[in-house]
Design goal:
alpha+beta; DNA Binding (I), subunit A; 2 domains; 8-stranded antiparallel β-sheet; two-stranded antiparallel ribbon; 10 strands; about 35% helix; elongated
C-alpha cells in the first residue's frame, strides 16, 4: 500500500467501537486503509476505510479485538513490528480445543518472516526479528497503550456528556448567554463557561434550572461540588441564577427581561471605604497597630 498521498477524510484519533485510528496506512485499489489500536489489547490492525465507517455492522463492534482468538490475536493484527499473516501451517488442521498456545506466521516490518509463539507475542517477549532493540519497542508500545487509553477515556466522557446533556439545545445556550452576560458568582465578563449547578459528574445534565454562566476561575473553584458543598453565598447565587433562567426560558424568553449578573441587584458590590482599604493594606503588611485601628473603624 502506498501512503504517499493523504486522503481527504482524516480519521486519525477517532474511535470506532473498541478501536482507535492511529495512523493512515495507505491506499490500494482506490480504497484507503487505516492503522487502528485496540483499547482492550495492546495490538494494532489495519482496516479498510469502508469497514471502519460501517463499524456497527462489522467485527469492529462484535468483539473488542475483532476476532475470537485468545488475547485478541488474529490474522492481520500488529504487535510491535510483527504483522500476523496466518496460523502456523502445522496448527491449521488442529481444532482450537487442542492448542493452548498456538504459533503464528508473522512478518516483521523489515520483511523477515518467522513463526512466533502467541505467548511471546502477547507478553512482548518478541516484538521484532531483532532488527530493533526490544526495550525500545516495549517503551513505544507502553506509550501507545497509554495514549490509546487516554483517547478511549476522553471518548467515553464525551459520549456520556452528550447523553446527559441531551436536553440542552443551541437555543437554550443562546438564551442563557443573553440572560447571563456575566459570571453569576463574581460578575466578570471574561472567559465565561456554562456550568452544571448540580454536578455532571454525579449524573446531572444541562437543562433550564441546572445551568449557569461561570467564569473559568469560579468554575474551577466550584469543580464537581454540589450546592451543599459550596460556600453558602456562592451556592445561593448559583441556585438563584439557575432558577431565574428557568423562569426566563419557560416564560418564552421575553425581550424585556433584565440580563443579570450575580444575584442581579447585588452586583456590582458597593465600593469599599477608602479608610478601610488603608487599614486592610496595613494589616497585610503586618503593622503592629493595624488590628486595633481596624477594630476601632468597625466600631
Amino acid at each position: 500500500m502506498s501512503a504517499d498521498s493523504y486522503p481527504t477524510r482524516d480519521l486519525t484519533g477517532k474511535r470506532f467501537g473498541w478501536w482507535f485510528v492511529v495512523a493512515y496506512a495507505g491506499e490500494r485499489d482506490g480504497i484507503n486503509y487505516w492503522q487502528c489500536h485496540c483499547c482492550k489489547h495492546v495490538i494494532e490492525r489495519v482496516f479498510a476505510e469502508p469497514d471502519i465507517l460501517k463499524w456497527k455492522a462489522d467485527p469492529l463492534k462484535k468483539h473488542p479485538s475483532g476476532c475470537h482468538e485468545p488475547n485478541g490475536v488474529a490474522t492481520g493484527c500488529i504487535i510491535g513490528l510483527w504483522t500476523i499473516i496466518e496460523l502456523a501451517e502445522h496448527l491449521k488442521a488442529e481444532s482450537s480445543s487442542d492448542r493452548t498456545a498456538p504459533s503464528w506466521k508473522c512478518r516483521c516490518a523489515c520483511g523477515t518472516e518467522r513463526t512466533v509463539n502467541e505467548e511471546d507475542l502477547t507478553s512482548w517477549r518478541t516484538l521484532s526479528c531483532g532488527c530493533r532493540p526490544q526495550e525500545q519497542l516495549r517503551a513505544e508500545l507502553r506509550l501507545r497503550r497509554e495514549r490509546a487509553w487516554q483517547s478511549f477515556s476522553k471518548a467515553m466522557r464525551r459520549a456520556g456528556r452528550r447523553e446527559r446533556d441531551s436536553k440542552w439545545t443551541t437555543e437554550m445556550q443562546q438564551a442563557l448567554d443573553t440572560f447571563q452576560p456575566a459570571c453569576v458568582n463574581c460578575g466578570t465578563t471574561d472567559h465565561l463557561t456554562t456550568d452544571h449547578v448540580r454536578p455532571y459528574a454525579r449524573g446531572h445534565g444541562l437543562e433550564p434550572g441546572n445551568a449557569v454562566r461561570l467564569c473559568v476561575r469560579c468554575n474551577s473553584f466550584k469543580s464537581d461540588r454540589g450546592p451543599s458543598e459550596l460556600p453558602p453565598e456562592m451556592a445561593r447565587r448559583l441556585e438563584t441564577a439557575a432558577a431565574r433562567f428557568k423562569e426566563f426560558w419557560e416564560g418564552g424568553c421575553p425581550a424585556t427581561a433584565v440580563s443579570e449578573g450575580p444575584a442581579a441587584a447585588e452586583w456590582p458590590p458597593p465600593a469599599l471605604d477608602p479608610a478601610l482599604m488603608v487599614l486592610l493594606r496595613a494589616l497585610e503588611r503586618g503593622g503592629d497597630d493595624s488590628v486595633g485601628h481596624l477594630a476601632d473603624w468597625f466600631e
